[in-house]
Amino acid sequence: MLIYAVKDYEELSRKAANIISAQIILKPASVLGLATGSTPVGTYRHLVEGYQKGDLDFSKVTSVNLDEYRGLSGDHDQSYRYFMNTNLFNHVNIRKDHTFVPNGLTEDGAEECADYDARIEALGGIDLQLLGIGGNGHIGFNEPSSVFTRGTHLVTLTQETRQANARFFASIDEVPTQAYTMGVGNIMAAKKVLLLASGENKAQALYDTVLGPVDPMVPASILQLHSDVIIVADEAALSLLNDKI
Asked: What is the C-alpha separation between 200 and 72, in angstroms, rounded?
């Protein structure tokens, strides 16, 4: 693992955007695995700025998103398709038909999961997978469990995760209880992984990810076994690791 220690969220966002920009410049037809939530918002803002300055070209990029809430349509303002359109896709020259997010309204969940895995494989795999990390160590919506899940699957969200996401909804009662998510196997198959961590509430999860045992109860800990992981974390997120790395 390569760990970049940055001062704050703004520096984290700029550093992450620079890493993704380098990926696109070196390989214009990159397949990017993208994440949602509050952590990558600043990263996407910097990527949009790079495009607007003429430094980035997304025309050959393909994206596959980590996850989507079950039961939300792509035009629902809390769906992850809507999030991606609003924060990135609508502001750069990426082809919308080259952007993929699980279908939250699918009637056949098993078929949707199998199709999503097949799509990633058909694309030749993911060149760079962007991740946030949950306070319980989840990546995507891979929650603490007794096993690491290989492929895309339907997951029941923990109360902790629903509570963390309730700030985006009118109340916790409106937060979906299930979501489709890439599996840990999909993430580990990416050629490069970029993990972002910001805030003191991520400090324990980041510590366990980097120095704890590889344990499905801390899903992100499996990244210790990946050959090319970059972590960008601010001072607060690194507070438990500062004298250990």
From this structure: 31
> Residue 48: which CATH number?
3.40.50.1360
Q: Is 102 part of any domain?
A: yes
Per-residue pLDDT of the chain (245 residues; tens, 9 = 90+): 999 999 999 999 999 999 999 999 999 999 999 999 999 999 999 999 999 999 999 999 999 999 999 999 999 999 999 999 999 999 999 999 999 999 999 989 999 999 999 999 999 999 999 999 999 999 999 999 999 999 999 999 888 889 988 988 999 999 999 999 999 999 999 999 999 999 999 999 999 999 999 999 999 999 999 999 999 999 999 999 987 77
* Inside any domain, residue 242: no
Q: How far apart are alpha carbons 89 and 83 in whole angstroms?
A: 9
pTM of the model: 0.95
Question: Residue 161: which of 44, 42, 41, 69 has the closest Cα?
Answer: 69
| Positions marked active-site | 67, 136, 138, 143
Q: Are 140 and 34 in contact (CB under 8 A)?
A: no
The rounded distance, in Å, linking the Cα atoms of 112 and 153 is: 9
Residue 174 belongs to domain spanning: 2-234
**Number of folded domains in the chain?**
1
Contacts of 207 (CB under 8 A, 6+ apart): 240, 241, 244
- Assigned domain for 207 exists: yes
Q: Report if residue 240 sits inside a domain.
A: no
Beta carbons within 10 angstroms of residue 197's beta carbon: 26
